[in-house]
Specification:
single chain, 8 strands
């Protein structure tokens, strides 16, 4: 069961020097910003926010970060209180796994959403807000949709393939318990959650040996992902040059991926970008349409574009959008840090609602 991390007294005490260090490093970055030109984010505000996030992720341990971030459930409860709406959840008993409703649980169509955070951070109030915007826009057009946000277990407490199992079983739950046809189901995710979307699609095409196979009677309505993590090498020169545009440093990404994999190696289910064209044959029978959004300057943009190129060889219903103005997974992260609605967020909302018409 996913829960907030517990830390020692000394780890708590370490927050004091950590705050001082992060503040000093962010101040130094602010001073240098005018000299960076095109090698830095396009506005001072974005530069400071991204620097603050990177320095925080770099300085604090995963356990400290999880202690601050809470759990998907605690964040959902806080969000519902702020919205003055009731808490609504489902549980997959045999996995001791929960998911949380955004919108009417009797809606005709459901979005199964896998949040980002490197499989180390929980779902946040920003994720719930983004999904509520989709629900609200659909409601305005008299379309019935709700979202279920999965609380999958976080690393390093749990490792692959536990998280993919939970994602697959949420889809199975939607079909068998909620009585939804595949055509009434959309999959969505950002960053590592976007990777999970491809993991589920891969499992449907090529059953994972440790997960019960999933056969669909018809294709899913759609899938949308923001900045999926599709390769785990992080060695290209782009990762050094473009780290300044990222909310998390490459060192943290490497740690999170290592924690997620545990003792398992990389394979076609956990690292979808390594798969060849043949792997994606049959995708037309699995999902009717797919949207991928990325930031042009994010460190993993080339990896996503390479994977998308392979997929479109055998699947024509994929739309890839690259924003010159956004950063990695900005549709959700931008909400969390108080930025204006991003290009990618606007596209995701409109694209999803169009799939409901």
């Amino acid at each position: 069961m996913a829960s907030a991390s517990r830390i020692s007294f000394w780890q708590k005490l370490d927050f004091l020097p950590a705050i001082f260090q992060i503040s000093c490093e962010t101040l130094a970055a602010a001073i240098w910003w005018p000299l960076l030109g095109e090698k830095a984010p396009r506005t001072f505000k974005r530069h400071i926010l991204l620097t603050l996030m990177r320095k925080t992720f770099a300085r604090l341990s995963t356990e400290q970060l999880q202690f601050i971030a809470g759990s998907t459930e605690s964040n959902y409860i806080a969000w519902t209180r702020a919205q003055k709406i009731p808490v609504q959840s489902i549980q997959i008993p045999h996995l001791n796994t929960k998911a949380f409703w955004i919108g009417d649980d009797q809606a005709d169509t459901v979005v199964l959403y896998f949040h980002g955070g490197g499989c180390a951070m929980p779902g946040s109030e920003a994720h719930f807000t983004l999904l509520s915007q989709i629900v609200s826009r659909a409601t305005q057009l008299e379309r019935s949709v709700a979202a279920l946000v999965l609380q999958y277990d976080l690393a390093p407490a749990e490792h692959y393939p536990r998280q993919i199992t939970q994602c697959v079983e949420l889809l199975r739950y939607a079909i068998t318990d909620l009585k939804k046809s595949p055509g009434q189901i959309l999959l969505g995710g950002d960053s590592a959650g976007g990777t999970m979307v491809f993991s589920v699609l891969s499992h449907i095409l090529h059953p994972h040996p440790s997960i019960t196979p999933m056969k669909l009677s018809a294709p899913l309505r759609a899938a949308f992902v923001s900045s999926p993590v599709v390769r785990f090498s992080f060695t290209a020169e782009r990762f050094r040059l473009n780290e300044i545009f990222e909310p998390a440093p490459v060192s943290t990404l490497k740690e999170w991926i290592a924690n997620y994999l545990g003792t398992s190696g990389k394979d076609g289910w956990n690292e979808p970008g390594q798969n060849d064209v043949e792997w994606w044959k049959g995708l037309t029978d699995v999902v009717k349409g797919m949207l991928i959004t990325i930031a042009t300057d994010e460190v993993m943009a080339d990896d996503v574009q390479a994977m998308a190129s392979k997929i479109t060889t055998v699947y024509t219903e994929l739309t890839l959008f690259s924003s010159k103005n956004d950063f990695h997974a900005e549709p959700a992260i931008g909400i969390a840090v108080g930025l204006e609605e991003s290009e990618s967020a606007r596209l995701i909302i409109s694209w999803v609602v169009e799939r409901l018409l």
